[in-house]
Amino acid sequence: MIVLCYHKINDRVNDWNHITVTPDTFMKQMEFVMNHYDVVTTAYAYESEHTVSISFDDGYEDSVTNILPLLEKLRIPATFFISTQRLGSDEEDWCNELSRRIMRGGQEKTNIEIGEEKISTLSVEDRKKANIQIFNYLKGLDNKRRDDWMHFIREWAGASSDEPRKEFRMLGFEQLKLLSESELVTIGAHTVNHPSLACLDYNDQEYEIKDSINAIKKITGKAVEQFAYPFGGTKDYNQDTFQILKQNGILRAFSTWNKRILSDINYEIPRICVTECSMQNFIYKIKHPFSC
Predict the structure, then answer these.
(1) Is the pLDDT of residue 193 over 80?
(2) Is residue 33 left, alpha or beta, with left meaning phi > 0 and alpha meaning psi from -120 to 50?
(3) What's the rounded Cα separation, in Å, for the pair 275 and 12?
(4) Which of 6, 147, 183, 251 is packed most tightly, with the most Cβ within 10 A?
(5) What are residue 39's DSSP bridge partners?
(6) Which 3-state string (H, E, C) describes the chain?
(7) Could you tell me which residues come within 8 angstroms of residue 108 by beta carbon, excluding any fewer than 6 positions away?
(8) CA-CA-CA-CA torsion for 19, 25, 28, 33, nearest 10 degrees?
(9) What is each CA distance from 37 to 48, 168, 194, 260, 277, in whole angstroms?
(10) Over the stretch 235-260, which tens digit does the pLDDT of each residue have?
(11) Which residue has the higher pLDDT, 273 or 13?
(12) How far apart are CA 284 and CA 91, in angstroms?
């Protein structure tokens, strides 16, 4: 089974993290998939490269406004992995808020100091590089230290970056419930705060996993049996993560690591991340899923 990992289907407006695929591109990709593969749910047995599953991470509002109508039009199933902290809020998750603050804020400032390093923010290209560099730094921190840095970055950016982007709004509670009621949709968990789980101690990992599962259960009234690791690399989870997932009823967990041979296939199911790209690039990815 080949599992595709998307985030957002929307117009590509101010998408500095490159996680948005346009509806037109998505439809063309799905038409190719449907013409060449069997489309199955992510609960399908991981045994054949002639089947494809579709998944979406984070839980953006366009899951209901844009993606669900496309799924219903095509009659294809998909799994949505939901981070729960910002559900029902206009605020963006920390990854997207960071890029908004760096790209829009502190326009009169030429650098930002992270640790002992001064990172240039003089030009647009400098800010794009700063966004990536600071993201990689914050990703390696626990929740408390990352939140402290985000507070610093908000102060550095100032009021000019205070307005969240509507295109990056997360699902509301009723919207998540509506999404879960579709016969085509499976809802999985994706932590509370979208951290790299391996950077957390056991208790913090347990909170991130258990509380996200329970929040989704409370909203949807349904069991949660699947999970996707935030960021999804092999350094973003560990043996503690596996243990906590199993203790909390998770039967399958998905990475973004696309190697064929892994230590525990049910808890390291590989996925191919899809961004806006040419059809040639997409076809290569799906036909050579384990080439990287």
Answers:
(1) yes
(2) alpha
(3) 11
(4) 6
(5) 52
(6) CEEEEECEECCCCCCCCCCEECHHHHHHHHHHHHHHCEECCCCCCCCCCCEEEEEEEECECHHHHHHHHHHHHHCCCEEEEECCCCCCCCCCCHHHHHHHHHHHCCCCCCEEEECCEEEECCCHHHHHHHHHHHHHHHHCCCHHHHHHHHHHHHHHHCHHHCCCCHHHCECCHHHHHHHHCCCCEEEEECCCCCCCHHHCCHHHHHHHHHHHHHHHHHHHCCCCCEEECCCCCCCCCCHHHHHHHHHCCCCEEECCCCCCCCCCHHHCECCEECCCCCHHHHHHHHHCCCCC
(7) none
(8) -10
(9) 10, 31, 32, 19, 20
(10) 999 999 999 999 999 999 999 987 66
(11) 273
(12) 36
Q: Would you give the distance in Å from CA 283 to the centre of its chain?
A: 22
Pair 130, 157: CB distance under 8 Å: no
β-strands 111-114, 117-120 pairing: antiparallel
The label of the residue with tokens 């998770």 reads 250
Of 103, 75, 67, nearest to 274 by C-alpha is: 67
Strand partners, 5: 55, 273
Instruction: Convert 254-275 to b/e letters by CB count within 10 Å (16 or more is b).
Output: bbbbbeeeeeeeebbbbbbebb
Give the Cα-Cα-Cα angle 9, 15, 21 (nearest 5 degrees): 25
Of the candidates 252, 259, 219, 223, the residue with the CA atom closest to the CA atom of residue 55: 252
Tens of pLDDT, residues 69-122: 999 999 999 999 999 999 999 999 999 999 999 999 999 999 999 988 999 999
Residue type, 11: D
Integer Cα distance of 109 and 125 in angstroms: 14
Give the per-residue pLDDT at 262. Answer: 56
Q: What is the mean pLDDT of residues 46-70?
A: 91
How large is the greatest C-alpha to C-alpha distance in the chain, in angstroms?
A: 55
